[in-house]
Specification:
419 residues, alpha+beta, Nucleotidyltransferase, domain 5, 3 domains, five-stranded mixed β-sheet, four-stranded antiparallel β-sheet, 17 strands, globular, disordered C terminus
Length: 419
């Protein structure tokens, strides 16, 4: 649902303005006007609007989530209703009768526009089927390729080359390029990462060259666009499950950044059938051993665990079991470092000791992946026929026809997305 002229619903205090042009009262030109309602453009307008909608939702019996103040929920007769507030947009999920009742209550207080079932919002496509929800940014990816003139480019099988050292070694002799276009491209790719965790690491790596952009960096960014060209239909598929287990995976490289010898940590968490959180970020400290590297990576994952536990437990007040974080074989040193409080004193970066505290509080636990679950070989090239439901022997211009079909919003079925 969309609130019409939302900011005008906020009640503001002690704000005065000059007479608007054409409304000056004779013999009172020196007077000022006191606002009773907020106006668009005032810096106080977003705050007073949030205070107004927050008070009204709480009066309806909603409870605010402690982890995210924009998530509200309530349970009536074992039926749940969740409301997500994003500025002037409200997203409702739950039982149909509770949603209908909430819509009437909101429409009685604010001027609302019912947009119906959610299928597109902020570049995110939502496909809702019985017992499953599919999230994708296919239209956004097509617009991105059009913007940078890469819609008809040749697709690539991987988002970037495995040898990242070239980005630093060859960059010295490479020519400087206009950083404005590069920053626009990386910023657009950052938004695409919202549903494409497969390009998260590549975008994070290239985002480190914003200040001194060279030709090889721009070529590497176009490499990601070529990969997106062949995988436009990828997204996230969530199916209904009787048991929802939240578990994560944590890992890190060793001195992956050549200039400063810093490492890159990565973690992801899945809930039920698909991933709900992922990140790849450069560590802020220079580790002196692989034990310290993995320890810092595990602490980054532990910080996210605390927030996810608070978010999920705060919705319905349920007790959560300790969340499992999987580590690759050989990373047992990080697990020992988390459990051994004496080692905390020896590690120089004491601000990373949140992982051990969370283990003591029984919020998380580490588990080693088995040899069968770990592959040390490079990933093979992706076969597009396994990711798309187009039949074998498709014509060469099938992708172009598909682009026009998406633009017209006349798709007859949803592609099979990567879960």
């Amino acid at each position: 649902m969309d609130v019409i002229i939302a900011f005008l619903n906020g009640v503001i205090e002690e704000v005065f303005i000059e007479h608007p042009n054409g409304f000056v009262i004779h013999e009172k030109e020196s007077h000022v006007c006191r606002l009773k309602k907020a106006l668009h453009g005032l810096k106080e307008a977003p705050r007073v609007w949030y205070e107004r909608i927050d008070q009204y939702l709480l009066s309806l019996g909603f409870l605010k989530n402690d982890a995210d103040p924009n998530i509200y929920f309530k349970v009536i007769d074992v039926k749940a209703l969740i409301l997500v507030l994003y500025i002037d947009d409200l997203f409702l999920t739950g039982e149909d009768d509770l949603i209908a009742r909430c819509k009437k209550e909101l429409a009685s207080e604010f001027e609302m526009k019912d947009l119906g079932l959610m299928y597109y919002s902020l570049g995110l496509e939502v496909w809702q089927r019985p017992n499953e929800v599919i999230l994708s940014q296919e239209k956004y990816a097509i617009d991105l390729l059009k913007r940078f003139g890469m819609l008809d480019c040749k697709s690539m099988a991987t988002p970037m080359e495995a040898n990242l050292k070239k980005l630093h070694d060859v960059a010295i002799s490479s020519d400087l390029v206009d950083p404005t276009m590069y920053r626009q491209l990386i910023g657009s790719l950052m938004y695409l990462v919202n549903t494409r965790l497969d390009i998260c690491y590549a975008v994070n790596t290239l985002s480190q060259f914003m200040c001194e952009t060279r030709q090889i960096h721009f070529v590497a960014a176009k490499h990601i666009l070529r990969y997106v060209r062949g995988t436009m239909g990828y997204g996230l598929k969530y199916t209904s499950c009787e048991v929802l287990n939240l578990q994560g995976f944590s890992d890190s490289d060793w001195a992956g950044c050549v200039p400063d010898r810093k490492n890159t940590s990565g973690c992801c968490f899945s809930l039920g059938s698909a991933t709900i959180f992922w990140c790849s970020r450069k560590q802020s400290c220079v580790a002196q051993s692989t034990t310290e590297v993995e320890y810092v990576a595990s602490c980054v994952a532990a910080s996210e665990v605390v927030w996810l536990r608070k978010l999920l437990a705060g919705l319905f007040g349920q007790h959560l079991e300790p969340i499992v974080i999987l580590c690759v074989p050989g990373n047992n040193e990080a697990r020992i470092a988390s459990l051994d409080h004496q080692l905390h004193v020896n590690l120089p970066h004491s601000h990373w000791h949140e992982s051990g505290h969370n283990i003591v509080d029984r919020q998380l636990k580490y588990r080693k992946l088995g040899p069968k679950n770990v592959s040390y070989n490079p990933l093979p090239a992706v076969n597009s026929k396994t990711c798309h439901d187009s039949p074998q022997g498709s014509p060469p211009n099938a992708n172009k026809e598909r682009v026009h079909e998406i633009e017209g919003r006349n798709q007859s079925k949803v592609l099979a997305f990567m879960a």
